Amino acid sequence: MSPASNAPAVAAVDWGTTRMRVWLIDKDGKVLAERRGDDGLITAQQKGFSALLEGHLAAMGAPDALPVIICGMAGSRQGWLEAPYVSVPSPIGAILGGAARVPGQSRDIRIVPGLAQRLADAPDVMRGEETQLAGAGLPAKGRQLVCMPGTHSKWVLVEDGAVAGFGTWPTGELFSVLAAHSILRHSLGEHPKPVTADNPFFRRWCETALAEGGDVTSKLFSIRAAGLLQDLRPDDAAACLSGLLIGGEIASANRRYDAGAVPVVLIASGSLATLYGEALGLAGLGVRTVDADEAVRAGLVEAARENGMIARIGVAR
Amino acid sequence: MSPASNAPAVAAVDWGTTRMRVWLIDKDGKVLAERRGDDGLITAQQKGFSALLEGHLAAMGAPDALPVIICGMAGSRQGWLEAPYVSVPSPIGAILGGAARVPGQSRDIRIVPGLAQRLADAPDVMRGEETQLAGAGLPAKGRQLVCMPGTHSKWVLVEDGAVAGFGTWPTGELFSVLAAHSILRHSLGEHPKPVTADNPFFRRWCETALAEGGDVTSKLFSIRAAGLLQDLRPDDAAACLSGLLIGGEIASANRRYDAGAVPVVLIASGSLATLYGEALGLAGLGVRTVDADEAVRAGLVEAARENGMIARIGVAR
């Protein structure tokens, strides 16, 4: 007899720099339980990866022998076990299939590799986003341009189910670092409200950045000057900076990869999905949005399958 | 009888955010004495502008009635006295002539105004650089593009002796903030060596940024990836970041102002003069370098003259 469909078949873990998420998943790919914590890579380096993971699994009532599939920074050199980068170009399935097994554990624990683009003039790496990509339900044929916004936004060119190339725009990090540590902190204030896509300053500065083809450095100081000369308010200054950086990212990525007539696949959740959706529209690009949380879960299930940790057959996508 | 030419006629002060420089200058514009201190705007806000200035003047043996001409952030809203911005376009002489007199002082102390560009889509301000510009010995006729690199690099378009427009590229600040607070701190290390213009990484990344037309953000993460994939060393990572940001600034400014066939006037000293000289050359632009220290002193003398603090006649430029 096969196990009941509400019994967990695998634990799926998205383990990033600052947070982790754990899902118990049944043999059909259905989520049975979820936990989220702030114990990302940085905490785990101090408290131990195994202890943290086992603590979460015990709290969720996971069986002792339940296998675990992990993606994200836990697989970096500073992580639990380095899961060596797969070089692109590479079929997406082949990336997931190469998960590295953590030695000396009582259960079967594997970490999905990241991707490396070993080009002399455009070296790049990703960890975690390859799993989102695998779970985004991309068609097996044709050319897709995928945008995964965040601290380090990734744009991926997928051709016939294989990663042809990718790039990183550190948009989220630039926003945080400039807001906290540059002269713009005087303009944005200490706690600007979250930026919303209907803020006219977001839209206007996004359009400016799009028109400038990704040149954002020439406009940064204008946000400060607008505070001095035009009484720009802190919340609107934050919207200017957000619009400028997101618009600049889209202009630059579109210049590199040329989205063309096919909609950009936007893998994002929450306010990032809204802001990027708006900005892509301002750039005149079509958008198909995929929820980022669902994508990473689906990608982890796919990885568990590719590594033989759960059965391939009879499983819903 | 006129005073001996080795008697001080005016004290000239360049008072910035983090440092100040004081020169005693005779009626012919010759420097008699110089002092430099770390007591810029931030220190002065605590210790008092008058006390700090009088301390420097006393240490230099300046007479009690010696007039003082000041440029820089001491004239900002957070400074000693706000010297209101002059709006551009404006003839350079007219800017200097509007120095604001500090009230309640026993001596004649005046602060040169800054410049404001009140354009809806390109608001900008400068304080201090207008004085360098006035002291750069620009021709009274023709079109000049002037580059004043620094924390907030200024590019100024001068037409027939008047400021037609200007822009700010926060290149020095971006370097500092990214080196200290972004993921690139792992690549550059804690104390990278000062970047030199003969570092091949500086040159290569400068050329990349020039080719990308000022799009810098798409390349930032590649410095991190080159550390992971290509064993890029910390000092060379610093050279990459410097080359990328300076090349991006030049590409962007040249796109906005079009230097054309006339050499760019580079007002700079020390290593910045060397790095920007090299980068402007890589961009295929001619360069005429003016020493920044000499320019600000000459500009302050010019300002003292324009405000009637020293005689106009018989004064060497």
UniProtKB/TrEMBL annotation, chains A, B:
Protein name in the entry: 2-dehydro-3-deoxygalactonokinase
Species classification: Bacteria, Pseudomonadati, Pseudomonadota, Alphaproteobacteria, Hyphomicrobiales
